[in-house]
Amino acid sequence: ACQNSFETLRQRLIEAPIISYPRFDQPFILQLDASDVGLSAILAQKLIDQDGKAREHVIGYASRTLSASERKYSPTEREC
């Protein structure tokens, strides 16, 4: 049951309208985070929707776990 829920959530996170195509005439937003065990990033853009409201649209997600040696880095080094 948990695996099915995870797969459903994962699939929905990569389907439109969740993932948008980049608009190269608009600025990008890059959000980064580092924890003691991993790194994550979100690339997005703030675009005007059909209703005229500006909303953040995700272009892509990325994440990975840190190696044993990378876990020894300081928080500042992990986020560089």
UniProtKB/TrEMBL annotation:
Domain Reverse transcriptase/retrotransposon-derived protein RNase H-like residues, every copy: 2-80
Residue ranges that the Swiss-Prot or TrEMBL entry lists as coiled coil: none
InterPro entries linked: DNA/RNA_pol_sf (IPR043502), RT_RNaseH_2 (IPR041577)
Full protein name: Reverse transcriptase/retrotransposon-derived protein RNase H-like domain-containing protein
Superkingdom as given in the UniProt entry: Eukaryota
